[in-house]
């Protein structure tokens, strides 16, 4: 097993510290050399420790090379420059995601310079796209936004994990011919089932949850329901994973077993027939559910178990988990960046370890309660590490959710969905509403929140959980384990992470900037009245490329607010508040100086963004960043202020002052040229 662990370690290291192609080649030669040396030493000397060390190092080197090479291929597959009005052909590879003001779908390009690449396509709601159909597309293509969704869900990692090379905005399309490829056919089957279920269950509160249980498609679940699932700790029931695959496949195996009992014995043992049929059904269900990372892991583990069964071999469950982990990472090393990947493996490993350590003489209810306690403990460290909060009611909520929603409703929903019996689907959907009523009550209990713990504390907590599970003849073992587990809750206030803001400015004279925190998009516009439309046209493609269809706050001249909101609405982008009314957004303090000037401040940095208007509130204050989207006023105070960074879009009147300011900076000629030729600026204030 140590070789598998070395292989896994190398695959993870290769993703975290990716090497260039030259370094990969050098590491490959050295690793092959060490591997050859280790095998030669087997026949010359009897030093097992040295041979084992050399072999492990060579395996780690080879796996790091492989992982880095896969990462380089993934990076090279990305689109790095915008492409305007690209004419190409392709077909849909995912169900259509219905956003508030637009739709999104993944498309596979089949012609041109982007052939074989997958793009995330945004398009208006009034346009219809059909699965299993080849289209001629005219699109605007945009590179992935490297710093999108700061401090929150990482959209770029999601795109990369799904092999998406760029985002795109649809201009026009023309239907060409049917596409009968395997990918298109599977997507068409899944999309048609989603559409049918959406129509049949539209009158029921948990229609989106019903669809998610049947197909793994989660985009129809409202945010309010996601919050409820998170507060009660039953997210794992919603996301198709090993739990669902195991339950559904188990019911299928039971059905096949009942059928085989009624037929005559065959030359092939029934156990092998059941196993083969179970694998085929599991693959079908995994494809229907979108073939996500958690369900891949469960499918690999099921396949390994079946292989051991037909060969009558025994392999400890820990070995099976390590082999399964290795297989998952070999197929897709980028899976280590998936939160669900780690949650899935930690939970499965803990459950299996608890099963092997259980006392068979204990009461079955006591065993069930212990298992539930282990599941809750396993989820706490990762929840605090990734989300800084954890559900206090999850233990009780899961005692209801796992047997009722998981064991009963998951196979029931799938069977009724496949049978396409409308009245039965509606009955199950209504029953699902009733079954979720206790979860609604549990959701009234607030979640526990705290400062994010560091990785070392998380590992100590898991060491305590392992000590709690494993039966060892150590006195006061559980007390020591409890102390290690409780260390996850002790984090000093000095470790508080300040909020982060991303500021994107556009190098033109229209005074446009986009300020983003974790949950908010703030649009800044300082433009002349006759240039408002032109100014918005420079930022709307950027918003569409990021899938942003709502602006939380608007910073602009009051006289222009109405025309700005109307024009954004015509492009299916809504404005929640016409003025910035909040002072504190996601850890960033906003101080409004006037209609067009604000100061952003967090724990370590202060940023001014405005129209050059000076205020007493920033008099003699050290500024880390000064951003002037449009220098239309006297900016002399800016050039006399001590600031670490300056971003300014100047007009002809201020150009000479900007040049004099730049000439006083300690920059070489190339750096000054880069500043002068900049087309946009993106700033991350941490």
Describe this structure in words.
This protein has 24 helices and 20 strands. It is α+β, with helices and mostly antiparallel strands. Among the domains are: 2-76; 83-180, OB fold (Dihydrolipoamide Acetyltransferase, E2P); 358-390 and 450-497, no CATH class; 501-685. A hairpin with an 8-residue loop joins strand 3 (102-109) and strand 4. Helix 9 packs across helix 15, helix 13 (339-357) runs antiparallel to helix 14 (364-387) and helix 14 (364-387) packs across helix 15 (394-419). The longest helix is centred in the first third of the chain and has 29 residues, at 48-76.
Count every helix, treating DSSP H or I runs of 4 or more residues as helices: 24
Radius of gyration: 29 Å
Oligomer: single chain
Number of E-state strands: 20
Which ranges are low-confidence, i.e. pLDDT below 50, for 5 or more consecutive residues? 147-153, 666-686
The end-to-end span amounts to: 42 Å
Note the beta-strand portion: 15-25%
The largest sheet, given as strand count, sense and whether it forms a barrel, is:
6 strands, mixed
Average pLDDT, rounded to a whole number, is: 80
Q: How would you describe the shape?
A: globular
**Fraction of helical residues:** 40-55%
Class from secondary-structure proportions: alpha+beta
Strand order of the largest sheet: 13-12-11-10-9-20
């Amino acid at each position: 097993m140590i070789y598998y662990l070395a292989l896994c370690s190398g695959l993870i290291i290769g993703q975290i510290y990716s090497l260039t192609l030259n370094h990969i080649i050098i590491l490959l030669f050295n690793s092959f050399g060490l591997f050859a040396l280790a095998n030669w030493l087997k026949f010359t000397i009897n030093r097992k420790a040295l041979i084992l060390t050399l072999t492990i190092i060579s395996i780690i080197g080879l796996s790091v090379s492989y992982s880095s090479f896969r990462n380089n291929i993934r990076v090279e597959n990305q689109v790095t420059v915008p492409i305007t009005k690209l004419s190409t052909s392709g077909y849909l590879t995912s169900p259509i995601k219905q956003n508030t003001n637009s739709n999104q779908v993944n498309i596979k390009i089949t012609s041109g310079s982007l052939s074989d690449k997958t793009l995330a396509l945004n398009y208006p709601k009034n346009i219809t796209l059909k699965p299993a159909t080849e289209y001629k597309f005219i699109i605007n293509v945009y590179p992935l936004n490297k710093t999108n969704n700061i401090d929150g869900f990482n959209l770029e990692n999601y795109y990369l994990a799904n092999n998406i090379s760029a985002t795109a905005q649809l201009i026009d399309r023309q239907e060409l011919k049917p596409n009968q490829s395997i990918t298109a056919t599977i997507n068409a089957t899944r999309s048609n089932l989603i559409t049918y279920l959406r129509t049949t269950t539209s009158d029921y509160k948990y229609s989106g949850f019903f669809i998610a249980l049947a197909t793994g498609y989660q985009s129809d679940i409202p945010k309010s329901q996601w919050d409820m699932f998170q507060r009660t700790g039953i997210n794992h029931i919603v996301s198709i994973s090993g739990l669902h695959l195991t339950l559904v496949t188990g019911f299928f195996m039971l059905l096949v077993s009942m059928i085989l009992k009624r037929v005559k014995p065959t030359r092939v043992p029934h156990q092998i027939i059941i196993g083969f049929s179970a694998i085929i059904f599991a693959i079908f269900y995994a494809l229907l559910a979108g073939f996500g990372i958690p369900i891949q892991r469960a499918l690999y583990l099921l396949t390994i178990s079946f292989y051991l069964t037909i060969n009558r071999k025994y392999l400890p469950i820990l070995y099976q988990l390590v082999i399964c982990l290795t297989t998952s990472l070999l197929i897709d090393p980028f899976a280590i960046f998936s939160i669900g990947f780690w949650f899935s493996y930690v939970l499965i490993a803990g459950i299996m370890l608890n099963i092997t350590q259980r006392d068979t003489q204990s009461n079955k209810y006591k065993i069930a309660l212990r298992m539930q306690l282990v599941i809750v403990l396993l989820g706490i460290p990762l929840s605090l590490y990734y989300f800084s909060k954890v559900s206090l009611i999850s233990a009780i909520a899961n005692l209801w959710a796992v047997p009722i929603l998981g064991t009963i409703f998951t196979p029931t929903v799938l069977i009724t969905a496949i049978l396409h019996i409308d009245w039965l689907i509606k009955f199950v959907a209504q029953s699902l509403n009733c079954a979720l009523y206790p979860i609604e009550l549990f959701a009234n209990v607030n979640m526990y929140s705290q400062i994010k713990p560091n990785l070392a504390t998380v590992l100590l907590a898991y060491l305590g959980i392992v000590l709690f599970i494993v039966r060892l003849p150590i006195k006061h073992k559980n007390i020591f384990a409890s102390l290690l587990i409780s260390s996850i809750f002790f984090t000093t206030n000095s470790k508080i992470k300040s909020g982060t803001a991303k500021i994107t400015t556009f190098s033109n004279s229209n005074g446009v900037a986009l300020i983003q925190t974790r949950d908010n998009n703030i649009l800044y516009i300082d433009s002349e009245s006759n240039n408002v439309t032109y100014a918005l046209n420079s930022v709307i493609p950027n918003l569409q490329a990021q899938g942003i269809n709502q602006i939380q706050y608007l910073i602009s001249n009051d006289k222009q607010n109405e025309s700005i909101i109307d024009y954004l609405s015509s492009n299916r982008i809504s404005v929640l508040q016409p003025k910035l009314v909040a002072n504190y957004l996601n850890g960033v303090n906003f101080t409004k100086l006037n209609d067009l000037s604000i100061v952003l401040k967090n724990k370590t940095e202060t940023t001014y963004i405005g129209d050059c208007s000076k205020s007493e509130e920033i008099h003699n204050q050290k500024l880390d960043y000064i951003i002037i989207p449009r220098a239309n006023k006297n900016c002399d105070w800016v050039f006399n202020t001590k600031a670490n960074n300056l971003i300014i879009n100047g007009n002809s009147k201020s150009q000479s002052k900007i040049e004099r300011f730049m000439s006083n900076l300690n920059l070489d000629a190339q750096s000054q040229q880069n500043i002068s030729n900049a087309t946009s600026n993106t700033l991350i204030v941490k």
